[in-house]
Amino acid sequence: MLTRHTAALAALLLLGTAPLAQAADKPTDPQIAHIAYTAGVIDVEAAKQALKKSKNKEVLAFAKDMVRDHEAVNKQALDLVKKLKVTPEDNATSKALTKAATEERAKLAKLKGAAFDKAYVDNEVAYHKQVDGALETLLIPSASNAELKSLLETGLKIFQGHEQHAEHVASMLK
Amino acid sequence: MVPKRHLWFPLALTFIAAPVNAETIQVTIDKLVFSPATVEAKVGDTIEWVNKDMFAHTATVKDGWDVMIPPKNSASLTLKAAGAVDYFCRFHPNMKGHIAVAP
C-alpha cells in the first residue's frame, strides 16, 4: 500500500544525495514551492476522502485538522510566491507525488469502515514521515530565498506534528 | 495637620480589593513554539496564550485541562491547583510547554 508513495519520495530524496555532477537536479525555488504546495494539496485531498468515508470520531477529527492546517500553510505559500513574484513550476517530483497520491486514493476508495480508517491513518503516518524527510534533507537545504526557507521550516514542524498526531490516532484504532 | 496614619487607609483598601495579588502571564505561540516554554506561576494566576500562527493550537494537559487557542487569537486559563504540569498541543503534539504552579 505504501510502496508507491515510498517510491515517489525515494526519488525525491535521491535528488538530494545526487553526486555533484548532477547538481543541476537540485530543485529551484519555483520548483520547491510547487513541490511543497503539491504535498499539502495531496494531504487535503486524502483528508476530504476520509471525511466522506469514515465514521470514526477520531479519524474525522484528524482529517478536519489536516484540511485546516494544510489549507492554512498553502494560503501562506501562495501569499509568499505572489509577494516574491515567483511562479511555482511543475516538475517531475510534483508529478510523481500527484500520481502516487491518485493511485493511493483509488485503493482507499475500495475500502470500508475500520479497514479504510486503518489504511488512511497508516498512510498518513508514512506520508508525513516521508515528507518530513524530503523537507529536511532536500527542500529546506536547497531553498535559496530566506522567506521560502522559513515557511518550509514552519511546514516541517506542522508535518512533524501531524505525524505524531497520526501515530496517536493509529494507536487508538488498534 | 492630617495624622499620618490616615494615609495608610486607602492603601489597606487596595490590598483588600486584590488580596491574592494574581498575575497574568503571557505565553506566545509563534511558528509552533510555546515561548517561554517553561513558566513559574502560583495558584490564582492566569496564563494567557497569544497565538501568532495562522494555525489553531491547544494547550492540553493529559487527563486535565484543555484550552483551545484559535489562529491569530488568544485564550486564557486561571490556574486552580498547585503542582507542575506538562502541556502540549493536541493538533501538533511536538509542541510542548511546562507550568510550575506554586500554592
Summary?
The complex is a heterodimer of chains A (174) and B (103). With 174 residues, chain A is mostly helical. Chain A has helices spanning 3-17, 29-53, 57-84, 92-109, 113-142, 146-173.
How would you characterize the overall build of this protein?
With 174 residues, chain A is mainly alpha-helical. Chain A has one domain (28-173): Ferritin, core subunit, four-helix bundle (Ferritin, Up-down Bundle). Chain A is built from 6 helices and no strands. In chain A, helix 2 runs antiparallel to helix 5 and helix 3 (57-84) packs antiparallel against helix 6. In chain A, 38% of the residues are buried. Chain B has 103 residues and is mainly beta. Chain B has a single domain, classed as Cupredoxins -  blue copper proteins (Immunoglobulin-like, Sandwich), CATH 2.60.40. Chain B is built from 1 helix and 9 strands. Chain B has one helix at 8-17, and strands spanning 24-30, 33-35, 38-42, 46-51, 57-60, 66-69, 74-78, 83-88, 96-102. In chain B, the strands form 3 sheets. In chain B, strands 2-1-4-7 form a 4-stranded mixed sheet, with no helix packed on it. Chain B has a 3-stranded mixed sheet with strand order 3-9-8, with no helix packed on it. A two-stranded antiparallel ribbon of chain B has the order 5-6. The radius of gyration of chain B is 18 Å and the shape is globular. Residues 12-19 of chain B have low confidence and may be disordered. The chains are: A mainly alpha (174), B mainly beta (103).
